[in-house]
Write a structure and sequence with these properties.
Blueprint lengths: L1 H5 L6 E10 L13 H6 L4 E15 L1 E19 L5 E10 L2 E8 L2 H6 L3 E18 L2 E2 L1 E2 L2 E2 L1 E16 L5 H11 L3 E12 L12 E11 L1
Protein name: Outer membrane protein beta-barrel domain-containing protein
Organism: Pseudomyxococcus hansupus
């Protein structure tokens, strides 16, 4: 057993790939009259893809560290005339969610006792650039460019399934050949307030599920 452990490559960080829906709470902005998001895009979420890089700062009874993630999401709808009637052009809302977080995952039971479920949590700062397009250009409202960025915070809870238990030999080869110590599939739920900490303007807060693949290296 000690010889097997000694052959493992050092474990210093992880990369995550995840995808899910992102429905901004634009229509819940205080003082807003009407439901612009629903009117333009319906009740559907933006399809969002994100990549996160993590650095491990502690490995003992679980693993803790910091991570940075970047993503992209877009949603298309029908543009509207000043009268409120549908226009011939299409309009889109595009978001680039960025976050810096601290995380902890309880992987001790998976590594020591062979229990493949790994619960984890994250808490972080979020910045989300956004822009609206109409036709081939950027939408203009009241003489101002319809683009900007919103600050906020988010908390995430999730659970990962350690894939190593399904094919232990393949997992060892993955480590020796590519330096990938462990691989997981996961599901996570995020509660995010992205409204400039209660300030006026576009409310990009969201409550969402995401699913993905994680690799420790």
């Amino acid at each position: 057993m000690d010889d097997e452990v000694s052959l493992k490559s050092p474990r210093t960080g992880a990369i995550q790939f995840r995808m899910g829906g992102y429905k901004p709470l634009i229509d819940e902005e205080p003082g807003l009259t009407g439901t612009p998001y629903k009117d333009y895009f319906g009740d559907e979420s933006l399809l969002t893809f994100e990549v996160e890089l993590q650095r491990f700062l502690y490995q003992g009874v679980g693993t803790a560290g910091v991570g940075f993630s970047a993503g992209y999401g877009e949603k298309y709808g029908t543009a509207r005339l000043a009268s409120g009637q549908p226009a011939a052009e299409r309009t889109s809302l595009r978001l680039v969610p960025l976050s810096f977080n601290a995380f902890y995952k309880f992987d001790y039971a998976a590594f020591k006792w062979g229990i493949p479920l790994v619960p984890y949590g994250k808490l972080g700062l979020i910045y989300t650039p956004w822009w609206v397009t109409k036709g081939a250009g950027t939408e203009v409202a009241n003489g101002n460019r319809a683009a900007g960025g919103r600050w906020g915070w988010g908390a995430t809870g999730g659970v990962a399934f350690l894939l190593d238990v399904l094919e232990p030999r393949f997992a060892r080869d993955f480590d020796s050949d590519l330096g990938v110590n462990h691989s997981y599939i996961f599901a996570e739920y995020t509660y995010a307030d992205v409204d400039n900490f209660g300030g006026p303007g576009l409310n990009l807060s969201n409550r969402r599920w995401m699913f993905g693949l994680a690799l420790d290296y």
